[in-house]
């Protein structure tokens, strides 16, 4: 069993390290610093940590104001509030003027678990990636998170990064070279391309193992940057395999699956199956029970891969 | 109350009058825009740009400059008139307001026009942005001031009161906000649409230093905006009683002129009044 780290923990640690290196980094939170882990930064740099209380809209526009003065604000709260409660602020005060604000949302997706539907952000990627000028990143594990947090601190422009609550298996080596906008082929294959992000990348790798035993060669591509999408890597993989599956902890509408579908229809129309949260509000439960019930396990990805291959063969 | 030399006041009156003419010309040329709330704000914005604020037209991003955020972004004509008069762009360009390819967008766009400190237009956000600038100023130990104008109708937005709380919490005495208290919004008087009063009591209760003035009296405006009017550890709110449409008789206190363009004939009448 691989080691597990919650991406939010990796965020808190990395932020505190960055605080030492760059005095312009400031951190904003909305009464959730213990959960988002910005409290790690706060302990080290209390003067550069600003709690805005339960007032997310104000937090985002304040971050925008700080960015106009050369600060590099990281603003955090739960994904459901970080994207939904503040959408117009992100649109008008951050993306339109292209300000250097990093929105790092924790508790994305259904694995938030027991808190239930009000707290399960299954729509955030869709409503963020539609905004011009924004970069949207969903790291797959603790290592990718740490690297991505460093990368976005160096990058100038609006970023939405989505992290999770629960521990996820470590799948990257410590020397992994994360680049914004670069998808990574985790495992080469020839029969089907599985495009995944977040905790679904580990599940996709597990599905690929299962498929190998059946004689199916699945390619697994980790698409951490959902915007701007690595069109070249995605098209190349789809050309090679001729069919695709997307896997994400998000609604099957508008997220990674939506982005991949848009790309494939432009550059390499192949059959594609989407694994993710169906078009419904989800519910309380432990993360594993939820992934099972809503069809987001390694077994579900494997099923989708077989289906996609079947479609491909029927069309030939 | 301080004494200001007649020259100081006369100069500001001239600047404000020129700005009012430019507002009418701009909105008339575009056949679109918001004259009422631009005219009500003209005297205060003139005082900011031509007496109070420190800035460098040649170096608009100068780190130590004072900043002005027009949170009620629909009043962009008053900001453009001030920026043109200050020399941020040639006055001749005001007639491109709201036209395709113009840097004079319907609502202020900081990427398109130097001198615009914060992109606004979605009401309720600018005061928070100004708060962020004030926090940055404190962090950097700079002595610049941040000014922000909000509307009385805009004050119905919840985010205004979130910003009120955080600016007081973080003791932003380098922030001075102004409410353009013209009593009107789009659908009618504030009192009928959604009562925002008593505004001064509300801001006091939120922990701000509150100053009430006549927003068309330069002595009162300059007094309120002067550094001496600030209170240590508190942000300042100047509640300025104004007349919507001020200076153009047929627009004064008329709700209809919130977002309506004057005809060619009406532009002539308005300019004749302003130049009289
Ligand atoms: C969030 C938001 N809601 C609605 C509008 C449309 N709108 C533009 S101006 C305005 C009325 C503003 O009234 P007030 O703040 O009193 O402005 P003033 O009287 O100074 O022009 C409204 C509702 C907007 N720009 N932003
Ligand atoms: Mg008004």
TL;DR of this structure?
The complex is a heterodimer of chains A (316) and B (276). Chain A is built from 13 helices and 14 strands.
Commentary on this structure:
The complex is a heterodimer of chains A (316) and B (276). Chain A has a seven-stranded mixed beta sheet, sandwiched between helices. Chain A has a five-stranded mixed beta sheet with strand order 9-11-10-13-14, sandwiched between helices. Chain A has 316 residues and is an alpha/beta fold. Chain A has 13 helices and 14 strands. The longest helix of chain A has 18 residues, at 298-315. Chain B is of the alpha/beta class and 276 residues long. Chain B has one domain: 3-Layer(aba) Sandwich (Rossmann fold), CATH 3.40.50.970. Chain B is built from nine helices and five strands, in the order ααβααβαβααβαβα. In chain B, helix 1 (6-30) packs across helix 2, helix 1 (6-30) crosses helix 3 and helix 2 (36-52) runs parallel beside helix 3 (76-86). The radius of gyration of chain B is 17 Å and the shape is globular. The model of chain B has no long low-confidence stretch (mean pLDDT 98). Classes of the chains: A alpha/beta (316), B alpha/beta (276). At the A-B interface, helix 4 and helix 6 of A face helix 4 and helix 5 of B.
């Amino acid at each position: 069993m691989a080691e597990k780290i919650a991406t939010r923990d990796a965020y808190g640690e990395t932020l505190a390290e960055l605080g030492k290196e760059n005095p312009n980094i400031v951190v904003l939170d909305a009464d959730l610093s213990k959960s988002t882990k910005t409290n790690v930064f706060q302990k080290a740099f209390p003067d550069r940590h600003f709690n805005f209380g339960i007032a997310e809209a104000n937090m985002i526009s304040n971050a925008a104001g700080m960015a106009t003065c050369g600060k590099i604000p990281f603003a955090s709260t739960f994904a459901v509030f970080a994207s939904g409660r503040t959408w117009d602020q992100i649109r008008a005060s951050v993306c339109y003027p292209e300000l250097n604000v990093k929105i790092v949302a924790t508790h994305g997706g259904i694995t938030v678990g027991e808190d239930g539907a009000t707290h399960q952000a299954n729509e955030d990627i869709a409503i963020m990636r539609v905004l011009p000028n924004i970069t949207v990143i969903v790291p797959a594990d603790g290592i990718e998170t740490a690297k991505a947090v460093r990368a976005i601190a160096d990058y100038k422009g609006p970023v939405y990064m989505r992290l999770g609550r629960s521990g996820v298996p470590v799948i990257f080596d410590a020397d992994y070279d994360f680049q914004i906008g670069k998808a990574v082929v985790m495992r080469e294959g020839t029969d089907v391309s599985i495009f995944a992000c977040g905790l679904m990348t580990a599940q996709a790798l597990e599905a690929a193992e299962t498929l190998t035993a059946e004689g199916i060669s699945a390619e697994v591509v980790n698409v951490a940057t959902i915007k701007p999408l690595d069109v070249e890597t995605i098209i190349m993989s789809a050309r090679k395999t001729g069919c695709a599956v997307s896997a994400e902890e998000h609604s099957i509408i508008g997220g990674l699956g939506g982005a991949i579908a848009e790309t494939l229809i432009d550059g390499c129309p192949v059959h594609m199956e989407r694994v993710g949260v169906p078009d419904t509000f989800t519910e309380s439960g432990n993360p594993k029970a939820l992934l099972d019930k809503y069809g987001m396990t390694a077994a579900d990805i494997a099923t989708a891969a077989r289906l996609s291959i079947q479609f491909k063969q029927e069309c030939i | 109350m301080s004494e200001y030399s007649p020259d100081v006041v006369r100069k500001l009156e001239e600047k404000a009058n020129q700005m009012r003419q430019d507002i009418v010309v701009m909105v008339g040329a575009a056949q679109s825009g918001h004259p009422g709330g631009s005219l009500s704000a003209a005297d205060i914005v003139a005082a900011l740009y031509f007496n109070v604020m420190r800035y460098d037209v040649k170096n608009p991003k100068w780190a130590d400059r004072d900043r002005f955020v027009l949170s009620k972004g629909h009043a962009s004509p008053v900001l453009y008139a001030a920026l043109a008069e200050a020399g941020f762009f040639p006055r001749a360009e005001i007639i491109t307001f709201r036209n395709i390819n113009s840097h004079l967008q319907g609502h202020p766009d900081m990427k398109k026009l130097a001198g615009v400190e914060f992109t606004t237009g979605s009401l309720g956000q600018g005061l928070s942005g100004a708060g962020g600038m004030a926090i940055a100023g404190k962090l950097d130990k700079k002595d610049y001031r941040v000014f922000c104008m909000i509307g009385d109708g805009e004050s119905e937005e919840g985010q205004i009161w979130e910003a009120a709380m955080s600016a007081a919490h973080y003791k932003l005495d380098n922030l001075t906000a102004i409410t353009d208290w013209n009593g009107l919004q789009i659908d009618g008087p504030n009192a009928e649409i959604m009562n925002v009063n008593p505004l001064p009591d509300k801001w006091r209760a939120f922990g701000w230093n509150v100053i009430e003035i006549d927003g068309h009296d330069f002595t009162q405006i300059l007094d309120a905006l002067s550094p001496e009017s600030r209170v240590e550890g508190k942000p300042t709110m100047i509640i300025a009683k104004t007349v919507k449409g001020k200076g153009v008789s047929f627009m004064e206190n008329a709700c209809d002129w919130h977002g309506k363009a004057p005809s060619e004939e009406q532009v002539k009448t308005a300019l004749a009044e302003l130049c009289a």
